[in-house]
Amino acid sequence: MKKTLLQNGRVIDPANGVDAVCDVLLAGGEIAKVGTTNKTDARGAEVIDAGGKIVCPGLIDPHVHCREPGYEDKETIATAAAAATAGGFATICCMPNTNPPLDNDSAVHYVLQQSGKANLARVLPVGCISKGRDGKELAEMGLMLEAGAVAFTDDGNGVGDSMVMQRALQYSSMLGVPLMQHCQEPSLFGGSMNSGPVAVRLGLGGIASAGEEIMLRRDLELIERIGAAYHVQHVSTAGSVEMLRQAKADGLNVSAEATPHHLLLTDAACMGYDPNYKVNPPLRTAGDVEAVRQGVADGTLCCLATDHAPHTREEKELEFALAPFGIIGLEVAVGLYAKALIEAGYCDWPTLIERMTTGPAKVIHSPLGTLTVGRAADVTVINPKKKWTVKVDQFHSKGRNCPYNGMKLKGRPVMTIVGGEVKFRL
Ligand code: DOR
To answer: How far is the CA of 120 from the centre of ligand 1 (A)?
Structure first.
């Protein structure tokens, strides 16, 4: 039986309230022991010195665009999974805006098959809410769930039709699966950056906060009546954070995520017309960034999610108004979150790790994201002191659309273990 012993790390397991310097023993692909270990435990094990490092459950990213099938020039399931493990992620949830979209059970099977072939991070498929992601007719949620889908979303598009959304919530609630929404009212969508003075100055069309907040407000009205589990993707406005805070206080079954870019960047970054800053929802104002940070700190936003969205170099070299939306993030996420949240004084490592493990695991109803004995041996080792510089040409991802190239960061995953196997080691 394969054994690995991680010794003397700062073990942080938020699900079990653990934050202590101790050992973690992995055996036969499972967590075997957390605490003090002895010579018998170490016998036959690969012993890894984790002194000075954080040892935590394998990180989970609930929002990744793997692009396969259909856009393999941007990314594949294998390259996304490699980028994931290099970023400390043992599990990623892949979005269904592929070609064809993941809107049926065969497509879900295909993702799982490709994930198995890649044999790196676990890739969990998120199916479409509507057939073809066109917001008109519900996709076969039941069949996709049986095939292994963990949630549903039309990400890239919000579901505009209230009747379709109501039915989707009724079905997902019956199936016990979360619905994830890209909150953007379609009739209010246009433009390529945040609506405001910067867009006016640049002569670019604006995307107003109202488009996000109106859809969120409508959905909260629906879930209050239906009671379904509802998850808001990439929250970008202060108004959304406040609505979610209130909805949680009112006892609604809502969860939400924040991305690195909405925690770090404002629309002022678009001043140079660099399409690497073009993302949907767009970079907003300093007040919005502050609210998103506060939301993560107080748990209103229970997950961190990269919204890793690779595009080809040619596409991102188009002028700002014509380039596609999206920023990659898997290989820089931990350092960026540390910068936005820990270095800026909003939270500590245990809270950050909670938002990257227990938080997303709860959303997708997964037993992963913990070091509980008997669970899958998914473990991430982070060196919180490691200073490094982002170099996009060294990424495992095919994507190079990363606005952080050259940025100096502190804190980096140095090992990712999935099912007891070391998949990445720095
Ligand atoms: O910026 C984005 N890019 N936002 C989305 O919602 C979709 C994503 C993509 O697929 O490129």
So the answer is: 24
